[in-house]
Amino acid sequence: MHTLMVTGGAGFIGSNFVRYILHKYPNYKVVVYDKLTYAGNLDNLKDVAEDFADRYTFVHGDICDAKKVEETIRAHKVNVVLNFAAETHVDRSLFEPGSFIQTDVFGTYVLLEAVRKLGLERMVQVSTDEVYGSIEAGSSKETDPLHPSSPYSASKAGGDLMCLAYHTTWKVPVLITRGSNTFGPYQYPEKIIPLFITNALDNLPLPLYGDGLNVRDWLYVIDHCEAIDLVLHRGQPGEIYNIGAGNELTNLELTRRILRLLNKPESLIHFVEDRPGHDRRYSLDCTKIRALGWQPRHEFDSALEKTVQWYMENEWWWRKLKSGEYLEYYKKQYGERLRDTFARSTGFRAG
Ligand code: NAD
Ligand code: TDX
Questions:
Q1: Which residues, in sequence order, are CB contacts of 341 under 8 Å at separation 6+?
Q2: Cβ < 6 Å from ligand 2: which residues?
Q3: Among 20, 160, 289, 328, which is 20 to 30 Å from 319 by CA?
Q4: Residue 148: nearest ligand to its CA?
Q5: What pairs with residue 272 in β-bridges?
């Protein structure tokens, strides 16, 4: 029997991973340890709590709280930690970098210390392609130097380097995954795909940054979960594994496909001021994870269609998220960057 502690398990990828693992391994237990920030949401795990009541536990806690982390590991006899907990939104990292440094660097250190002290079997650090920085041509390899551009990616890079230091110095059995832009059900509607789907459903403008030609490599969340599962069971401690499906698209092309699926007009697209430090393109060389036996099983267009369908059928999930704190953030993020037309149609005002 394995007991996995999934930190950040109430977020987007973490909750999909927990559901996937409990279905796949009938003898595994999962402890979700999550601070429930604005992005953490127990609605993401509602079905899990009902379907797997005997093998799933939720603990409300911060990964920066060493005492609580250790108590939880001891109390539940955890033998593996998977760290999904992070501040994850690049735009928010431009407003308040401090919380990113705290959770993504210091929090990772706290988990590493606990894994070392308590002698756990494994830790998987869920990281991102953004640590390599923008790449004009070709694809980033695991051995490439890190050139993070934002406080978010710099914090994730700091967490990664701490993992490697703990492995080199104390042989802590930690492995790192670097996934590309992920999409699917339960993604908080601040990230481009769920934001644009839910805005378009309400005929609100879709704010496309800069010229809309920045490129992201899209990965369906279940493919991402399968790759993390493989790394957990078959990866080598101290190693890094890139995870990408090779679906490189400009944001403009992505937006057009979303609008086509929803049968909405392209006039909803509004070009707005660019994100400062906006990385032009990410691209991953995934030879290593493919050699381990992974390949994506979901074709991009049908996965996007399924995702659009999910948001159409699950308004109960996202509509209540787009209120309160979200509107404050939205106003701060888009208010000044958008033209008058946007302010008129949404009711938001600059400043
Ligand atoms: P998310 O923002 O949806 O969820 C993050 C979760 O972490 C939330 O449940 C939140 O409450 C929790 N959390 C935040 N700070 C915490 C703290 N101090 N202690 C405990 N819990 C805390 O994020 P996501 O998109 O699911 O990303 C999960 C992981 O995958 C992150 O580490 C992210 O860097 C990485 N990643 C994400 C993507 C992507 O496209 N979404 C791609 C590659 C890698
Ligand atoms: O309103 C928007 N308009 C827009 O043009 C938003 C929210 C985004 N964009 C652009 C910026 C990016 O080029 O779309 C692209 C994707 O943006 P995000 O969804 O914010 O994702 P990104 O910045 O690429 O980072 C994501 O992928 C890697 C996740 O947020 C990270 O957590 C992950 O590590």
A1: 205, 270
A2: 88-90, 128, 130, 181, 191-192, 195, 207-209, 214, 216, 251, 275
A3: 20
A4: 2
A5: 209
Strands 80-83 and 122-128: parallel
Per-residue pLDDT tens over the stretch 297-346: 999 999 999 999 999 999 999 999 998 888 888 887 887 666 554 454 55
Residue 164 structure tokens: 């490697």
pLDDT score at 339: 54
Q: pLDDT digit string (tens) for 252-308?
A: 999 999 999 999 999 999 999 999 999 999 999 999 999 999 999 999 999 999 999
DSSP conformation class of 284: B
Phi, psi of 319 (to 5 degrees): -65, -40
How far, in Å, is the centroid of ligand 1 from the Cα of 14? 7
> pLDDT tens-digit profile of 88-114?
999 999 999 999 999 999 999 999 999
Does residue 156 contact residue 128 with C-beta atoms inside 8 Å?
Answer: yes
Distance (Å, whole) CA 218 – CA 283:
10
Ranges of each domain in the chain: 2-188+215-248+273-298
- Distances from the Cα of 201 to the Cα of 204, 209, 262, 325, angstroms: 8, 20, 8, 21
CA–CA dist 126, 124 (Å, integer)? 6
| Structure letter (DSSP) for residue 281 | B
Report the chain's C-alpha Rg in angstroms: 20
- pTM of the predicted protein model: 0.96
